[in-house]
Amino acid sequence: MKNIKDTFFDRGFISPIKALDTSTANEIKNEYINFYENISTVREKIEHKSKSHLLFKWANEILFEENILRVVKEVLGQNVVAWNSLIFMKPPKSKKYVSFHQDQNYWKIKMDKGLTVQIALSSSTKENGCLQILPGSHKQDYSHLDKKDTNNLLARGQEVQLTENEKNNLQKIILNPGEFCIFHGNIVHGSNINISDDYRVLFSIRYLTPDNKIDEKLYYNYATKVCGVDEFKYFKEEPNLDKDSPKLCSNFHNQLISKQAETYSKLYLKKFSFLSFLTKLKFVRNLIYLFREYKGQAKI
Predict the structure, then answer these.
(1) Which residues, other chains included, contact 114 with Cβ-Cβ below 8 Å and sequence gap of 6+?
(2) How far is CA 243 from the centre of its chain?
(3) 60 vs 57: CA distance, rounded Å
(4) Residue 127 near residue 229 (C-beta atoms within 8 A)
(5) Which end of the chain, N or C, is less surrounded by CB atoms within 10 Å?
(6) Dihedral sign of CA atoms 275, 283, 107, 124 in order
(7) Where are the beta strands (DSSP E) in 68-216?
(8) Does residue 117 come out as left (phi exceeding 0), alpha (psi in the -120 to 50 range) or beta?
(9) Domain containing 175 — which CATH number?
């Protein structure tokens, strides 16, 4: 019988695994949906979904959830940092989707030393656009194209073209509230639209070993150490809601997101990239998001 690590590197993923009680997951989902439905600006509706552990205490706690870390350490070893966390939320009857892609294509890290944990805070089903994975696809590299589609939950819109045979081999990751899937940084994955009458909420965490390096020209280089030691110090320490004030964490979050927005705008504006500095301003980012929402005619 294969152990967790062997199974992970053979198939590229393991699912489902229990992380939280169903009642706990439901409480978090309800708290989050209440927060989301009372947000006043489009900018806030989008930007809180990255580095979410800097804004939500429940998200920061999940980073350190022992039921998750026990599995992560089986694969990555005893020294682990959380580089990013993201909320993938699809409103009822929304057109939002995630194009099929490989994270490693744009992470540019050592592919055997990074993985994603995706926890279901709601039920994740075929009807509401569950995660789909192409088993074994982590063993090869696919060509990606960046497509500008405002309904795509990926900021850059990166996408691979799958053959009909590959599409037929996609595996739907059905999860109950509180369960999670762990998958390889190079596996092809994505998800379809939500045709159900309820929210679909997944919370993702990017775990890496501390000897990895991030391309700082494209991404922020801050992380939270969740277990073990960091002898390399490649990642800069970020504030934490356990020891720092919510205001400090929120301000830090805004600095990271504004810098990331400027980076992405340079990619899209190209010959007009000299204007990208304007995205440091919250009202400018809000106008951009409003335009994207209008253009896509989709719920955010």
Answers:
(1) 76, 83, 103, 104, 107, 185, 206, 207, 208, 209, 212
(2) 24
(3) 5
(4) no
(5) N
(6) negative
(7) 80-90, 98-101, 114-120, 131-133, 145-146, 158-159, 171-172, 179-184, 189-191, 200-208
(8) beta
(9) 2.60.120.620
- One-letter amino acid for residue 220 of the chain: Y
Q: How confident is the model at residue 299 (pLDDT cuts 50, 70, 90)?
A: very low
- C-alpha span between 205 and 227 (Å, rounded): 14
What is the count of structural domains for the chain? 1
> Which two tokens mark 109?
């890290």
Question: What is the helix (H) or strand (E) element at residue 226, kind and residue range?
Answer: strand 222-227
| Residue 84 belongs to domain spanning | 4-296
Amino acid at position 124, single letter: S
